[in-house]
Write a structure and sequence with these properties.
Distance between the termini of chain B: 33 Å
Helix content of chain B: 25-40%
Largest sheet of chain A: 2 strands, antiparallel
Number of helices of chain A: 25
CATH architecture of the largest domain in chain A: Orthogonal Bundle
GO molecular function (chain B): ATP binding; ATP hydrolysis activity; L-isoleucine transmembrane transporter activity; L-phenylalanine transmembrane transporter activity; L-valine transmembrane transporter activity
Organism (chain B): Rhizobium straminoryzae
Number of strands of chain A: 4
Pfam families (chain B): ABC_tran (PF00005), BCA_ABC_TP_C (PF12399)
Structural class of chain A: mainly alpha
Keywords (chain B): ATP-binding, Nucleotide-binding, Transport
Number of strands of chain B: 10
Protein name (chain B): ABC transporter ATP-binding protein
Number of helices of chain B: 10
Oligomer: heterodimer
Number of domains of chain B: 2
CATH topology of the largest domain in chain A: ABC transporter involved in vitamin B12 uptake, BtuC
Number of domains of chain A: 2
Chain lengths: ~625, ~260
């Protein structure tokens, strides 16, 4: 390869960085002030692109093009402000997990809304009028538009710097980023400051979306692809730092540009590896600072945890017996659905153990499930092993990966932990997606069938039921073992745990590995149930499914996930087969759930029961 | 007598600002030593270096003859150090008894290895935990969820947790902060009695000078990161440098002859 090619590739990378920077600095601004990690930022980017598409095809003049981008971004910003006022304002004091889920719900809704309005096909927008030509760099052509983008990034950074450092509003934003409680205590009206910052952040994202029109097709999957990249950018740059976002956007864009040239097979992995490396060396990103501890209280404490009493155990046994008798009533299809629900229970129980007991909110639990599934599929297809062997190899593959990834992850906490787990899951996803020779890429691995004795629907259902029962009993046992108490001590009070001799990293690492092992078992059962494995099992969607099931059950409870998984899985299977726009409904339900039942099914029941028992007592504890 | 805690030449700066400069101190078995000083004198920094939360820039710390400089708090626990915090730190999702049981199991090695996964938590060291709760007067509350306790009881629970580690040294950061005056005196009397009986070395910080002068055997006064005086309560009270540091706060009028 020649030097010229490298130069051109470098310039293309810089041009790619522009959009990435705009979206990332919007996310970073919003996070800095409101402490919300806005998952919906990718959706706003996508909406900006779609609206800009509709406007630019009407206004095909040099002024019209830029006007279209600005108008589109402004419309999306207004939409963002409305969402902030209606939804996010109620969530600023809520746990991070609820905020992430609510904004993920918005993302799901946006995806279907876009399909509803613009149709399912990819749309190719017009070129930028007046900038559609090419310039020659070292004998190679480069689009003029790319040069505009290269200049635009620093220009936006400069404008934002002026806004933040030369205006009163900017001063308030910087002050709120340092310490929002103090800004509130000083009498600044935070409500509109937050709305304004949110709208500005959304404007930047939507404008970034519009900028991509002349370069890329507009599609309804662009939200998730940009949001992962942007998470990587803000984590590398440091949450809350604009200059950090700028630097990191260039690093990530260049890694992508050169990764394709140098390491075509694993270009996606490269970015996530760099992110993992940065987080380990500088846990708060290149230019980020440690997050100020928010002064809000934890929501998770509702009383001392206890194992189920006699009544609870009898009820659980009764449910188990009913479940075992299901094959008497259900046909083959029904049992397939029931098995899928049970697998979801295993997956959710493994995540609940990690989140409720260990207090580790993983956003990459799909890696556990997916590696189990791929581990099983590969051992059957490539090594000709039996299902029985695969049932062990799959979970072990997950556990092995968790042992490696977990070593990095448990060095971080809260939101950075969540993002690093997401990054590791994306690494695995990109390997499954890109390493076509082994994983089949997008086509997956098919023909993964169970052993003869378990191939009937009833037998397989009973196998799954057996595994599910074992997993639920095991997580309950672990919760009330000394190990579970040590984990809970680390979650309740890291200072106290250290002072009584519990060292955080080894204990949390062990929990991470155990949880992945159990998720891996769910993956194996899933692979044999479906007879195939696709990269989807490793995707963000799978991780979020897990989070929703735990949330639905109640993430402050010991085993609400069982109820959450059953309700959620049945609802989503029903929605997918009975409606055209399942994401719109599902997303709406998630948002509603976060707003109305933040304690989940079991949590709400527990509170209702506690309320009845304490009726008349003035000190009934409400949700703080 | 050989000191339990021995610190030599401790130093710590934050971005060029010296929080603690050259502090040396010792605490012996059965002795209650108070570390006092105005806000910003370096008490908390000193304390956090001794308990392993902050790594000193220079100097060394010996606990019962073992060098602990740079060790993690969880390692320092194993050398026999119990700790209470300015803002009480307990596990709010557990009962009162479970809080103490956890510390007992940790001391007996019950939180390491595969055994932690296989055994049941509630069956181990329950009786020992109840004995400690009895000692500090919390036995009737043993089964209550920790988060329901009044703050004064949580502070006492912290003492029980610290004692569960069978410490030779107790580090107590403002043990009486946030308590009513009756409760404060009670807690300090209890601490002093236990310390004498079990021959514990106790180092504590406190803002309440009544508590300090009526319970400490020895007082160390910090100002701007260095020790300006130490000795018996009457020596310290008479020290001109201490009076200068505290001048105008009026605390030395209390109980002065």
């Amino acid at each position: 390869m020649s030097v010229e090619l490298y130069v051109v590739q470098f310039l293309t990378g810089l041009a790619n960085a522009a959009s990435l920077f705009l979206v990332a600095c919007g996310l970073s601004l919003i996070f800095g002030v409101t402490r919300i990690v806005n998952f919906a930022h990718g959706a706003f980017y996508m909406l900006g692109a779609y609206l800009a598409y509709s406007l630019t095809i009407r206004w095909q003049t040099p002024v019209g093009f830029w006007l279209a981008l600005l108008v589109a971004a402004a419309i999306v910003a207004v939409l963002g402000a409305v969402i902030e006022i209606l939804l996010l304002r109620r969530l600023y004091r809520a746990p991070e997990l609820l905020q992430l889920l609510a904004t993920f719900g918005l993302t799901l809704m946006a995806e279907d809304a876009v399909r509803l309005i613009w149709g399912p096909e990819d749309l190719v927008g017009p070129r930028a009028a007046g900038l559609s030509g090419a310039m020659t760099v070292l004998g190679r052509p480069m689009p003029v538009y790319d040069f505009v983008l290269i200049l635009l990034g620093p220009a936006v950074l400069g404008l934002l710097w002026l806004l933040l450092h030369r205006s009163r509003w900017g001063l308030l934003i910087r002050a709120a980023t340092e310490d929002r409680d103090m800004v509130g205590a000083l009498g600044v009206n935070q409500t509109w400051l937050f709305t304004g910052v949110f709208a500005l952040g959304v404007f930047l994202a939507a404008f970034g979306g519009g900028l991509q029109i002349p370069r890329d097709a507009v599609s309804h999957v662009m939200d998730l692809s940009i949001i992962t990249e942007v998470f990587v950018v803000v984590v590398i740059g440091g949450l809350g730092s604009l200059t950090g976002a700028f630097l990191a956007a260039i690093i990530v864009a260049e890694l992508n540009a050169f990764g394709i040239l140098i390491l075509p097979g694993i270009s996606l992995v490269l970015t996530f590896l760099i992110m993992a490396l940065v987080l380990v060396l500088r846990p708060f990103g290149l230019l980020g600072k440690p997050l100020a501890q928010s002064r809000t209280l934890s929501h998770r404490i509702h009383g001392a945890w206890q194992p189920l009493g006699g009544v609870g155990r009898s009820a659980a046994l009764a449910i188990l017996i009913c479940a075992a008798l299901l094959p008497l009533v259900l046909g083959e299809y029904g049992l397939g659905v029931a098995s899928e629900v049970l697998i979801a229970v295993i997956f959710a129980a493994s995540l609940q153990f990690l989140m409720s007991v260990a207090g580790l909110d993983s956003f990459g639990h799909a890696a556990g499930l997916g590696l189990g599934a791929y581990g099983a599929a590969l051992s059957v297809q490539h090594f000709g092993l039996s299902m029985e062997a695969a049932l062990l190899i799959g979970p072990l593959a997950s556990a092995l990966f968790a042992a490696i990834a977990g070593w990095f992850c448990v060095r971080l906490s809260s939101i950075y932990f969540a993002m690093l787990t997401l990054a590791f899951a994306q690494i695995v996803w990109s390997i499954a997606f890109q390493w076509v020779e082994v994983t089949g890429g997008d086509n997956g691995i098919v023909g993964v069938w169970p052993s003869a004795w378990a191939s009937g629907a009833t037998a397989y259902y009973w196998l799954t039921l057996g595994c599910t029962t074992a997993v639920v009993l095991l997580t309950r046992h672990l919760t009330f073992s000394p190990f579970g108490y040590a984990l809970r001590a680390l979650r309740d009070s890291p200072l106290r745990a250290a002072a009584i001799g519990i060292s955080r990293q080894p204990v949390q690492h062990a929990a991470f590995v155990i949880s992945a092992f159990l998720a891996g078992l769910a993956g194996v059962l899933f692979a044999f149930l479906k007879g195939s494995v696709f990269p989807d099992t490793l995707g963000i969607g799978t991780s979020v499914d897990g989070l929703i099931m735990v949330l639905l059950g109640g993430f402050g409870t010991v085993s609400g996930s069982v109820a959450g998984a059953i309700v959620y899985k049945m609802a989503s299977i029903w929605l997918i087969s009975n409606t055209d726009f399942p994401r719109l409904i599902l997303g709406g339900l998630i948002v509603l759930l976060v707003l109305v039942f933040p304690l989940g099914i079991v949590g709400t029941l527990q509170q209702a029961l506690a309320g009845r028992l304490l009726a008349g007592n003035a000190s009934v504890r409400g949700r703080t | 007598m050989k000191p339990i805690l021995q610190a030599e030449g401790l130093r710590k700066s934050y971005q060029g600002v010296k929080a603690v400069a050259d502090v040396s101190l010792t605490v012996s078995a059965g002795e209650l030593v108070a570390l006092i000083g105005p806000n910003g004198a370096g008490k908390s920094t000193c304390f956090n270096m001794l308990s392993g939360q902050i790594r000193p820039d220079g100097g060394r710390i010996l606990i019962a003859g073992t060098e602990t400089t740079g060790l993690q708090p969880s390692d320092i626990f194993r050398l026999g150090v119990g700790r209470t915090f300015q803002v009480a730190q307990t596990c709010l999702s557990m009962t009162v008894r479970e809080n103490v049981q956890l510390a007992l199991q940790s001391r007996h090695g019950g939180l390491r290895g595969v055994r932690t996964l296989l055994s049941r938590f509630d069956r181990r060291f329950a009786a020992e935990a109840d004995a400690l709760l009895d000692l500090i007067g919390l036995a009737p509350q043993a089964n209550r969820p920790c988060h329901e306790l009044p703050y004064g009881d949580i502070k006492r629970l912290e003492l029980a947790i610290a004692l569960a580690g069978a410490p030779r040294l107790l580090l107590m950061d403002e043990p009486a902060a946030g308590m009513g005056s009756e409760e404060r005196a009670g807690l300090m009397r209890l601490t002093a009695a236990i310390a004498r009986e079990r021959q514990l070395a106790v180092l504590f910080t406190e803002h309440d000078m009544d508590i300090v002068f009526s319970h400490a055997d020895r007082i160390i006064v910090l100002s701007r990161g260095t020790i300006i005086a130490q000795g018996s309560p009457s020596d310290v009270r008479a020290h001109p440098g201490v009076q200068a540091v505290y001048l105008g706060t009026g605390i030395f009028a209390i109980g002065d002859p």
